[in-house]
């Protein structure tokens, strides 16, 4: 049993896929129309949408870092050359840099040719150019609509005044002049002027700068309504970026030169002062030459003097660096040099200090305000480095002073030996030593000034253009293939969504699978929609579709009634209108055709329909018998034209039908019927509404539960399943009535069914005539069902 259940579930799953396919494929015309309309909308959109073009260029950012040098001045005055690629991207997208491009290329004016539906950006192809001779300061942007007449004159914004090319005119925005350019003049144009900041902001926002992985290469992309405009902006941006990098380098070099000039001025004055003092001292004391007798004494301290001079120079340089760092005027400028202080720690700190200063300057140039978080972080970093440098300089001065003290003590021991020399000669030597110290510093600064001047004259950009942007005349937006594909997807999705919602809201049985997935009750057969005017569709020579389906049900009943020699079949449904009487009448007729003496019991005593459907007059029946007013032999009524087929009428409708069916005489009735008839068919009241069918089920051998397509609610299938599982009705089976081909399958089964044939085979006499392709495609609309529902003969 378990294996059979799993096999059945697998079959139902397969049927579900088929059901889904046929459910959607019957709406094929709707899909075709929807896709066609979507493609038409896509065509109109592609025809009149504004075209967007894209242009790209690339450049490489090389490092300024060179081979390590022992020159401390060069190490301090030039940054380490490591460039943050993200900073370069922000600089490229900065508004100040784009403003230079806008100004240099004159992009404040935009020209558009006005068409019937859309307008076209005619950058570089405009037949005229607007020259702004003067603009009012309060103007940030304005727009003109220029209309040309046949004589070449034009008006602006539909004003009455007319002008000609070359004529100077004044309006609310300033003084202007239209200059003739190449090309034919059309009728209408739109001219837009925006100030440099607005234009630059627009281009910067549209600019895309992407770094290439693990390289210093930057790819620059810009989209615009004109391909030449996009290419010119990118090329101008790369050119201005190169110029700006050179200017930044030159600014650093000029700062170095300015610093050296200032120091040269100070050292020069000090050197002149010492030299003047020496000359004055010589003249005052008549000292023309040094006595030869002091030669031996001075040779002994000569080496010590050289070392002291070197330490004094270093001490002087340390003082200059300390003064420079403590001077508030140079808070945000680089430290030019260590001035010969050969200390690795100091060199490292000053290099880091200069790098931080340059990074801060780049942030400021990138429009970062002083209060920006990154700028404040750089300020804190710079201040910390400045304090570290000052602390290091103090340590260096302390060590130099200590060394000078040691040298002084050594020199004192030697000088004690020359105290006999004249004091005048000793003073002269001291002044000459000072002169030599100042002269060494002066010569060093002169050398560095020349080197900086050479560097200023030979500065090159570290930005190299790898590929200039070229205009691409193939638009990137709208993407035609994507638009068409999207149109197709939407064209398919909308009908699918419509069908899905339609099915989601549908709470009635539409397919055989709707029943199978809700209950395990056997489906005995399916009966198609009858196009006949007669309710009795079974005849001796009838080869209609519905007739054959009733023959299939007759055959299937044999497998259910295997142990009943004279079976009693109970026919019921959930509620009125599902076709019980139609099914009962025709099953009785098809049994009679097989030579079985068959009687149909009109036991729906609340609303009897059998006699009226057969066109027979009302006669005494069940209610009369139960009241004792008629004999059993008088109840059966033969059906004209149908041998072996009888009807047992209901009789007058009683006021208490449920209690009447509890009468003990019913046992005698069914005993008589089983003795005189081969097949008994009971047409009972709907089991979902009254209890009549359950009362009569004790006499039945099997139950046919009628479900009508498009009429029976799916929740009613739960009642059938409950009856089946609890055994409230004997051997219950389902007959699906009023099956229409529009539901995706033909009469008698179609997909998932083993019964009968479908339409289109040409096998039956009463197959509905096709009205051509329209009926074939649009039959799913079933527009007539609402009109025919009340008149349909079930």
Summarize this structure as a short list of keywords or feature phrases:
794 residues; alpha/beta; eight-stranded mixed sheet; five-stranded antiparallel sheet; 23 helices; disordered C terminus
Please give a quick description of this structure.
It is built from 23 helices and 20 strands. It is elongated, with a radius of gyration of 54 Å.
Structure description:
- With about 800 residues, this protein is α/β, with parallel strands linked by helices.
- The chain is about 50% helix and about 15% strand.
- It has an eight-stranded mixed β-sheet, sandwiched between helices.
- A hairpin with a 6-residue loop joins strand 16 and strand 17 (about 645-650).
- Helix 2 packs antiparallel against helix 12 (about 480-505), helix 8 (about 295-325) crosses helix 11 and helix 14 (about 545-560) crosses helix 15.
- Mean pLDDT is about 80; it is low at about 1-15, about 65-70, about 75-80, about 745-760, about 770-775 and about 785-794.
């Amino acid at each position: 049993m378990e294996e059979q259940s799993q096999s059945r579930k697998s079959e139902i799953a397969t049927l579900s896929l088929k059901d889904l396919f046929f459910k959607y494929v019957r709406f094929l015309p709707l899909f075709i129309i929807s896709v066609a309309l979507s493609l038409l909308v896509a065509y109109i959109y592609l025809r009149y949408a504004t075209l967007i073009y894209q242009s790209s260029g690339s450049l490489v950012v090389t490092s300024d870092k060179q081979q390590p040098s022992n020159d401390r001045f060069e190490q301090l005055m030039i940054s380490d050359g490591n460039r943050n690629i993200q900073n370069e991207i922000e600089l490229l997208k900065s508004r100040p840099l784009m403003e230079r491009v806008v100004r240099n290329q004159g992009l404040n004016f935009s020209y558009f040719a006005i068409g019937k539906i859309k307008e076209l950006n005619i950058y570089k192809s405009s037949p005229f150019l607007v020259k702004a001779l003067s603009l009012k300061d309060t103007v940030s942007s304005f727009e003109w609509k220029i209309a040309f007449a046949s004589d070449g004159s034009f008006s602006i914004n539909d004003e009455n005044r007319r002008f000609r090319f070359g004529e100077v005119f004044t309006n609310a925005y300033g003084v202007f002049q239209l200059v003739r350019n190449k090309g034919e003049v059309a009728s209408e144009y739109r001219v837009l002027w925006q100030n440099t900041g607005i234009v630059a902001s627009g281009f910067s926002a549209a600019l895309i700068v992407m770094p290439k992985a693990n390289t210093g290469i930057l790819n620059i992309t810009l989209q615009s309504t004109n391909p030449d405009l996009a290419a010119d902006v990118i090329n101008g941006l790369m050119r201005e970026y190169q110029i700006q990098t050179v200017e930044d380098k030159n600014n650093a070099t000029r700062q170095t030169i300015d610093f050296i000039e200032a120091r040269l001025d100070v050292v020069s004055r000090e050197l002149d002062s010492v030299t003047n003092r020496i000359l004055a001292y010589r003249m005052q004391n008549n000292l023309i030459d040094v006595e030869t007798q002091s030669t031996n004494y001075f040779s002994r301290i000569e080496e010590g003097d050289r070392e002291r001079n070197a330490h004094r120079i270093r001490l002087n340089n340390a003082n200059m660096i300390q003064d420079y760092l403590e001077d508030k005027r140079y808070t945000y400028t680089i430290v030019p040099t260590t001035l010969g202080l050969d200390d690795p720690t100091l060199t490292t700190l000053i290099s880091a200090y200069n790098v931080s200063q340059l990074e801060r300057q780049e942030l400021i140039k990138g429009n970062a305000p002083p209060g920006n978080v990154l700028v404040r972080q750089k300020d804190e970093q710079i201040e910390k480095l400045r304090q570290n440098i000052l602390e290091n300089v103090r340590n260096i001065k302390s060590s130099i002073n200590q060394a000078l003290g040691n040298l002084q003590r050594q020199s004192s021991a030697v000088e004690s030996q020359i105290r006999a020399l004249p004091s005048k000669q000793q003073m002269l030597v001291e002044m000459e030593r000072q002169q030599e110290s100042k002269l060494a510093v002066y010569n060093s600064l002169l050398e560095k000034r020349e080197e900086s001047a050479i560097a200023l004259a030979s500065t090159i950009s570290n930005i190299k253009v790898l590929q200039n942007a070229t205009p691409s005349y193939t638009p990137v937006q709208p993407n035609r293939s994507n638009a068409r594909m999207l149109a197709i997807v939407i064209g398919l999705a909308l009908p699918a969504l419509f069908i899905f919602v339609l099915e989601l809201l549908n709470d009635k049985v539409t397919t055989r699978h709707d029943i199978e997935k809700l209950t395990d009750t056997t489906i005995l057969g399916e009966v198609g929609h009858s196009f006949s005017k007669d309710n009795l569709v079974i005849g001796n020579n009838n080869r209609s579709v519905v007739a054959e389906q009733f023959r299939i049900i007759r055959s299937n009943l044999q497998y259910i009634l295997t142990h009943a020699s004279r079976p009693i079949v109970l026919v019921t449904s959930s509620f009125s209108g599902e076709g019980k009487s139609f099914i009962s009448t025709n099953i009785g007729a098809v049994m009679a055709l097989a030579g079985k003496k068959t009687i149909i019991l009109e036991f729906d005593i609340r609303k009897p329909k059998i006699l009226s459907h057969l066109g027979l007059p009302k006669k005494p029946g069940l209610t009369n018998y139960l009241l004792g007013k008629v004999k059993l032999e008088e109840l059966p009524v033969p059906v004209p034209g149908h041998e072996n087929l009888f009807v047992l009428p209901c009789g007058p409708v009683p006021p208490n039908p449920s209690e009447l069916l509890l009468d003990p005489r019913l046992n005698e009735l069914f005993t008589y019927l089983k003795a005189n008839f081969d097949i008994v068919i009971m047409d009972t009241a709907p089991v979902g509404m009254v209890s009549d069918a359950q009362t009569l089920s004790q006499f039945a051998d099997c139950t046919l539960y009628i479900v009508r397509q498009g009429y029976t609610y799916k929740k009613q299938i739960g009642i059938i399943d409950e009856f089946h599982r609890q055994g409230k009705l004997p051997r219950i089976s389902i007959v699906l009535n009023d099956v229409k081909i529009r539901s995706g399958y033909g009469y008698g089964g179609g997909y998932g069914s083993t019964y009968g044939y479908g339409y289109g085979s040409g096998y039956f006499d009463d197959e509905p005539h096709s009205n051509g392709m329209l009926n074939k495609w649009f039959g799913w609309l079933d527009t007539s069902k609402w009109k025919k529902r009340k008149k349909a003969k079930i």
